[in-house]
């Protein structure tokens, strides 16, 4: 092969490699822009429709398997495990851990719990120890809000504010970092179960003490027969599953 042929082949190879790199970069940029546009479109359209339709739209846009809210509710109810006499006799404990094992179901539960608050301009999601963290963290990401853990006494490292409260099956106290929520914040309180409402009410008191606004509550499960909602009167309360 002549020397000039070699250098010509080299130039061609460099040119084709550069062209390929440019094409891949352009493709990545374009697909990112498309994703942003469809997400923004989805959010804008969704905010003008009913909750159920919003959910349906959201599911279609994200390509999830279960597109109907009542189907999702049925699937969640089939998956959540009732553990009798835990943590003490007479209590039917709603064990949500099987939901966490199912990636699609977990994702859809989080999405459905966040859905009613998409246009509520939430700046902080306050989640209650411990199972509240499991849903609070992904909901905070979903809503683009900061996450604030509310914990049992002595667990948070920095200075805290504290409130005492009564549980369905115990009494306890909750603490929140003193600087986690500021006046002007719009706060969503998240937990797995609303039972008597004592825990959620205590969380709202902690938040209220900072001068921030409690925009609402989101629960995976509401035990309707315990009438916890009554303790949260005057506030927006959303729960995905109801047990009469
Ligand atoms: P309450 O303050 O009575 O509304 O109780 C709510 C808190 O207790 C939540 O953080 C729940 O995780 C937990 N809890 C109360 N009852 C149950 C139950 N039957 N199954 C699972 N968790 C429960």
CATH fold-level label of the largest domain: Rossmann fold
* Ligands bound, unique: adenosine monophosphate
Order of helices and strands: HHHEEHHEHEEEEHEE
The CATH architecture classification of the largest domain is 3-Layer(aba) Sandwich
Q: What is the tally of beta strands?
A: 9
End-to-end Cα distance? 85 Å
Arrangement of strands in the largest sheet: 4-3-7-8-9
Structural class: alpha/beta
> How much of the residues is beta strand, in percent?
15-25%
Folded structure, characterized:
Strands 4-3-7-8-9 form a 5-stranded parallel beta sheet, sandwiched between helices. A two-stranded antiparallel sheet has the order 1-2. It folds into 2 domains: 1-37; 43-243, Rossmann fold (3-Layer(aba) Sandwich). It is 44% helix and 24% strand. The chain has helices spanning 3-46, 51-62, 69-79, 97-101, 103-114, 131-143, 198-208; strands at 81-84, 92-95, 124-128, 146-150, 160-166, 171-177, 186-194, 213-223, 237-243. The protein is built from 7 helices and 9 strands; from the N terminus they run H-H-H-E-E-H-H-E-H-E-E-E-E-H-E-E. The protein is an alpha/beta fold and 244 residues long. The longest helix has 44 residues, at 3-46. Strand 5 and strand 6 (171-177) form a beta hairpin. Residues 91-94, 128, 131-132, 167-168, 191-200, 228 line the site of adenosine monophosphate (AMP).
